[in-house]
Amino acid sequence: MMTKISILLMAAFMSVQFFAQTNDYSVREVKNGLYIPWEMVSAPDGSIWFTQRHGAISRLNPVTGEIKQLIFEQNVSINNGEGGMLGLALHPDFPNTPEVFCSYNYLVNGNDYRQKLVVYEYNPTTDALTFSRLIIDNIDAAVIHNGSRLLINNNKLYMTTGDAADLSYPQNTSSLNGKILRYNLDGTIPGDNPIPGSPVWSFGHRNPQGLAMMGTKLISSEHGPSNDDEINIIESGRNYGWPNVEGYCNLPSEITFCNANNVYEPAKSWTPTIAVCGIDFYTHPLFPQWQNKLLLASLKNQALYVLTFNADQNTVISQVDIPEISFGRIRDVLAAPNGKIYVSTSNSNNVNNKIDKIYEIYDPTPSGLHTGEAVALKDSWTASPVPANNLITIQNKSNNGKAEIDLVDMSGKFIKQIHFEGKQMQIDITDLAAGFYYLKIKENGSVSQVLKIQKL
């Protein structure tokens, strides 16, 4: 263990380091001195772009911690509440189409609080953003309940809006509040939206502050009042009940309303509330115990949760928090393309108290195997189930023939070697102690892939 710590401390940028032998991940602080990093997105070059509520859009190098502010929007107003510079999305063909979508709150005539959705253009020569065009403005806003997350999928832009503390808005489809909106990337209304000429995609929302794709399904997290935080599966034209329904349709008046108004019940509801916030669906093999599960940031419970859905992906069947992730209130979570996970905190009291941080959850292996070999995680080989009690099935999707598989523990200690030939085989792990292990797959004399397994 001391050897692992010594090696990890050699990296100067790892200013904070946590590791436990019972876990297969480490955590480091990437950047501090931030003011409520609201939404983080991955760029094609591996950088992370993020908003801060006081008006900044910045780019972060997650390796070095270097940050570049790309714009500070002077029109942003926090209004002593939950508003400010909020949702963020990059054009799917970025940087060839260097457009950055953002939603923020602003004041009209000094006291009329509003929200807008705009597009900035990135200039690589000046390394800065400039205003390009407006998509929608004059959305009602308030000190609380403003949403707002952005997501682009299949060249459609989705935006969550809160009810702006007005209970008349969510069920009124003429209002843009308490909704999930859907636009074409040029700002026009898609012809297949449920209400012709309207950006409203779904309604009956209170304050949705998380948005992600789970395969082909759009998923949202939504704050309840003192009860019934929700995870919702979003479908076109569906009603999500607020304010007539809180959580599931389980009271007599709610059942009547749900039956009459095509209400879609949540996939998960929490009472008491945990203050759900940012979500992301994790698909990478880097952490197989979280693969194909929903990551959820919690403000109130100050935790990062992993939610498992049933086979039909319409109900959450289990919830666990990731141990040792305790950074205070967590605002957003980002599953990066390389499998690393980033979380941002929400602990700053005001713009003069910038104490928020972005952390990285990463895998210290395979460099921690002490082999000196540079191994890239690929997808030719798979191991399942993870975790397992007795048998692990190893599959070779490329069917390249023979391989040698070294079973090693978390410290890199060799346990045994398995000779593999063909397409599939089973490995008996009954005698292993509970914990995490690695399978080093050697093809033609060199390590081609590392698989991670867990013995229960």
UniProtKB/TrEMBL annotation:
Instruction: Kindly give the InterPro entries that the UniProt entry links to this protein.
Output: 6-blade_b-propeller_TolB-like, Glc/Sorbosone_DH, Quinoprot_gluc/sorb_DH_b-prop, Secre_tail
Task: Show where the Glucose/Sorbosone dehydrogenase domain sits.
Answer: 36-349
What the entry lists under Gene3D superfamilies is as follows: TolB, C-terminal domain (2.120.10.30)
Top-rank taxon, per record:
Bacteria
Q: Where is the signal peptide?
A: 1-20
Record's keyword annotation contains ATP-binding: no
Q: Does the keyword Signal apply?
A: yes
Q: What's in the keyword line of the UniProt record?
A: Signal
Q: Which Pfam families match?
A: GSDH (PF07995), Por_Secre_tail (PF18962)
Instruction: Give the Secretion system C-terminal sorting domain ranges.
Output: 385-447
Q: Read off the PANTHER family from this record.
A: HEDGEHOG-INTERACTING PROTEIN, HIPL1 PROTEIN
The name under which this protein is listed is PQQ-dependent sugar dehydrogenase
Organism equals Chryseobacterium kwangjuense
